[in-house]
Write a structure and sequence with these properties.
about 375 residues, mainly alpha, single chain, two-stranded antiparallel sheet
Length: about 375
């Protein structure tokens, strides 16, 4: 009688699995690490590539990932042998010489030299080399701008130079979407240097090159009004009378106004040429909130931005239900906690995306054009 073979097969398979698994007992998983044991110069690497520099560069780059893992722990890429620089510098000098148009080489060079080793001058050098090779590559412009703004603190130390850099980036973009991205960067930069309004001339120049009522024109005009409103809250706190909080009405200190603007208030100041108080750039009287001066128009803009996520939630829920909520109470009943609108505003659900309806300001908004 012949015995079935499957029990023997099962036993043998279990034995093989146990034998292989025994090698991993009392071991722990860890990433592969290795040092750089071959660092030819760019000229030697091109000669050894035998006419296939791009393929050789990518294979060498993949093999270097283990060195990156090693440097996460070591934080010291000094290597033996002649030549300048550490391991990462010599590695990426070679890779870039073999394939100067491969974008990840520059991105990884910045990450490894700047992010891992904190050698930010070297990192900036690599991204600038990338821009020389690919001057219209938006990713490299973003990377270089982040290095200058954050690691070299151009936002605080040299905002004018950073704004000029961003202007050059904007000119390099080939489509409107890319240029709008740079405008967003410049807008963010503008709001870090509000008191002196260093970036206001740029936004005014951009405003005059747009059509009134166009999406870009409205975007730039809104940016200017926000800048002027925030600037106004700062300078008004410096020129307000000492007892203005007791009266409940903002009163200017004439002597402080004269010291602040010895040649007279400029056109973008919250104080008119005759020394009287102007409304905020949106046409609302400046108000007091606790011990601070606020611009009601700017508060309305801030509220709409802060509620953008909730507005989109209402829109998504309305798409599922096939209709918009009838009122604020129903929107809240759907589980979306919309806050009450401040400063006399009311929620409006007549459109696909809910909005806030504000009362008309008592004064005319500032003319910007």
């Amino acid at each position: 009688m012949r015995l079935p073979l499957w029990p023997l097969t099962v036993v043998l398979a279990a034995g093989v699995l146990a034998w292989n698994g025994a090698r991993f007992v009392h071991t722990k998983q860890q990433p592969r690490v290795k040092d750089l044991d071959f660092l030819p110069s760019p000229a030697v690497a091109r000669a050894l590539a035998l006419g296939q520099p791009t393929a050789v560069a990518k294979l060498r780059w993949i093999d270097s990932f283990a060195y990156f893992q090693l440097q996460l722990d070591r934080q010291d890429d000094r290597v033996a042998g002649a030549g300048h620089g550490g391991g990462f510098e010599r590695l990426y000098d070679t890779l870039i010489s073999l394939d100067p148009l491969f974008l990840p080489f520059y991105q990884h060079a910045v990450t490894n030299t700047g992010g891992v080793l904190k050698q930010h001058r070297l990192a900036l050098g690599y991204v600038l080399r990338g821009l020389l090779a690919s001057p219209r590559e938006s990713g490299l412009w973003r990377l270089a701008s982040a290095e200058l703004a954050v690691n070299f603190d151009w936002v605080g130390r040299n905002p004018v130079a950073l704004d000029r850099w961003l202007a050059t980036w904007e000119e390099s973009e080939s489509d409107e979407a890319g240029r709008q991205l740079v405008r967003d960067w410049r807008r963010g930069l503008a709001f870090t240097r509000i008191k002196g309004l260093e970036t206001l001339p740029y936004w005014l120049e951009q405003l005059h090159s747009t059509r009134p009522g166009s999406p870009l024109g409205d975007y730039i005009e809104g940016t200017i009004r926000e800048l002027l409103a925030q600037h106004g809250t700062i300078v008004l706190s410096e020129v307000a009378a000492a007892d203005w909080m007791l009266s409940g009405t903002l009163i200017l200190d004439r002597a402080a106004v004269a010291r602040r603007w010895p040649q007279g208030p400029p056109s973008w100041a919250p104080v008119a040429a005759d020394g009287s108080l102007r409304p905020d750039p949106y046409g609302w009287p400046w108000q007091r909130q606790d011990a601070e001066i606020i611009s009601p128009g700017w508060q309305q803009v801030r509220f709409r931005k802060q509620c953008q996520g909730l507005r989109l939630q209402v829109q998504a829920e309305a798409d599922q239900r096939g209709r918009s909520p009838r009122d604020l109470a129903e929107a809240r009943a759907w589980g979306i906690a919309l806050p009450d609108a401040p400063l006399g505003g009311t929620w409006d659900f007549s459109g696909h995306l809910p909005d806030i309806r504000w009362p008309d300001p008592p004064h005319e908004p500032w003319k910007l054009r």
